[in-house]
Structures are given as C-alpha cells and as structure tokens.
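Sorry, any thoughts here?
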Amino acid sequence: MTALPLVFDAPRRGMPPRHLADLTREEARAAVTELGQPAFRADQLARHFYRGVTDPALMTDLPAAARQDLTEALLPGLLTVVRHQTADNGRTRKTLWRLHDGALVESVLMRYPDRATVCISSQAGCGMACPFCATGQSGLTRNLSAAEIIGQAVAAAAAMANGELDGGPGRLSNVVFMGMGEPLANYARVRKTLDALLTPAPHGLGLSQRAVTVSTVGLVPAIRRLTDEGRNVTLAVSLHAPDDELRDTLVPINTRWKVGEVIDAADAYARKTGRRYSVEYALIRDVNDQPFRADLLGTLLAGRLAHVNLIPLNPTPGSPWDASPLPAQREFVARLRAAGVATTVRDTRGQDIDGACGQLAAADRVEGVPAVALPTPQLEPPVPLGDEADQADGA
C-alpha cells in the first residue's frame, strides 16, 4: 500500500472571503481602520460575531451608516443552512451547511442533562480514506478556514442561548472535533479555532480547555506539535484496531505511523498535560470486535493514562459494515476492564437522522443538493508540519 502524504489539502482557489475570525485582533483593528472607522469597532464586531448576531440591524452599537459596510467586509456569511434534522425528542440536531463554493459540511448539536456538546467539521470531506467512514469514502474537497470552523461552534452556542433545542435556553459547554475531516491535517486553522474557543468573551467563546476535544487518526508529527505548543485540550486517538495488520486496512494512515508510534505520541501528550487521552474504537461486527482483539487492546493500554471510548458503528446506507451485536460489545468492555483499562460505550445519538458524519452530505449529493457541483477532490504535495506550513497555508 502506498504511504499517504503527511498533510492533505485542496487548492486554495476554493477558500472563502476574508472574515474577522480569520484575523488576529491587531489585523482586525487594522482592517476596520482601512474602512474609515476607529479601531475599536473591530472589538464590537467580534462581540456580535461570538454572540451569534448576524443581522446588521441588531448591531446597534455601530453607526447605522457603517453597519452594512463593516459586516460585508468582515462578517461575510460563510455557512448557509441547507437543512436541520432533529432526533432524540428534540435534544439532537444535525445541520447540513453549504459553504460559499457549494461544498457541504455537517455539525451535530447534542443536549444532555448536564451539558451541551457540538461536534464540528474541520474539512469538507476527508482524505484519510477509512473504509467504514462515510466521510472518508467521499474524499477530500478542501480544508475549512478557521472562520468556517469557528462559525459552526458559534452557531451552536447561539442555538443553545436561544433555546432552539428541547429544554429551553442553555449554554454550549463542549466542542469536539469529530465531524467531517481529520483536524490535524488542517493544523493551522484548527489551532486558530482552539484559540477562539478558549479565549474569553468578547473575543471568543470562553470554553474550558477540558471541554474541547481534538480527534485524530494518528498524525504523529501533529500530535507532537500540539504537545509542544502547550494546550491542555483533550486528545482523542481514533485507533479502531490494536494491531498493525488490521489497522493498516481500517485506518490507512497506519501504513505511515504504526500503532506503537501513535500511542507513544499520545503518551507524551498525557505526560505534558497531566490528562488522560481517549482512545476511540468503533466496534464493527466480525471485523475488530473479537475477544482476542479486546485482549490485545487491553495489553496495549494497561498502565497508560488512557481511556477507551467504544463506539458501536453507526452504519451507512449500502455499506457492508455493521455495528457489533450487544453480546460482543459487553464482552469487549468486560475484557478491557479486566485488564484495568477505563472503558465506556458512547451514547449513540441521531441514528434515525443519518447520524454518522458524512451521511447527510452524501444523501444531499445523491438528491442533487447543492445546485453547484462539488469540485473533484485533489491532493496537493505534502506540506511540512512547521512554521513554514502555516506560512504556505496562509494562516
């Protein structure tokens, strides 16, 4: 099998117009000054953006004559709702978004008794090619801009504040990068998004680092970079197999960085942050749910600062892959716990609304939405994970 490139990206011609959330505070203030307004107007715009205010008429602290120009220049609409789908008695809402170039991405807002979590996308499509994943089978269209990623979280926060999910007004408490795409393959923009999520209002959403989870299939250099940069967000590793033979097939990036390398990088993150990492493991009937693989996983993780999150596969239409039956799930859990590994089974939400990431977008492409055809996924040459990558990527 051919080794996959380090970083996947699509041509920059599809990137959206400039947005306040893509700029540093200093850049935003300079941009406002160029429009003939005092620099502090940038702070006012940021306050409105992070509160989810999109109508210029509601931005009453801005001069009426300047509202339209300022919002068009620095708060362009980047995400257009194609449709919402709800499940779980109104406590789960999946949103299909159309981007400015017709690409489709998804986010899922889930309300629980003690928290509200949004699962956001970092890429349109995905280049990791995991065969059981709807998004992986769609290929990569392009990276999302920081503003497009942040905008999904801002929209979820506004939906909670406005009481759009069952239970009345509330607060967004958690963000997980587990939607479409491989977050660490869009490192610079995801890193900028983390800054926005963690920065207190009015220049961010003010979430706790413990409330933000970044998931990866195992881009080892990017995990090490995240470790070195000192953020204490939760790291989740999508492992799905404890042995290289099977993982080479289920997670093709494993042909470049093996299970041991991925776990070593995650261990280094845990040592640096003092926080355990999550091992995501999709339980697939007769593929990776055998008792001996539970034992292998238990041996691999015993004594490490790790927690296993078992995920009964959310099957996609027409796919040969299916979720493990309950007896197999229970035995897998029992064997991991017997090995001393903390284990939970994820509460699966939204199965009746094509809950797996990529399903809603795939369905819409079949149905003919959007009207603008999606570009053919293309891959650029590998980009190094260093400061030069940020500069080349325009971050």
Q: What stands out?
A: The two ends are 32 Å apart (CA to CA). The domain at 78-369 is CATH 3.20.20.70 (TIM Barrel). The first strand starts at residue 80 and ends at 87. Residues 106 and 252 are 23 Å apart (CA to CA).
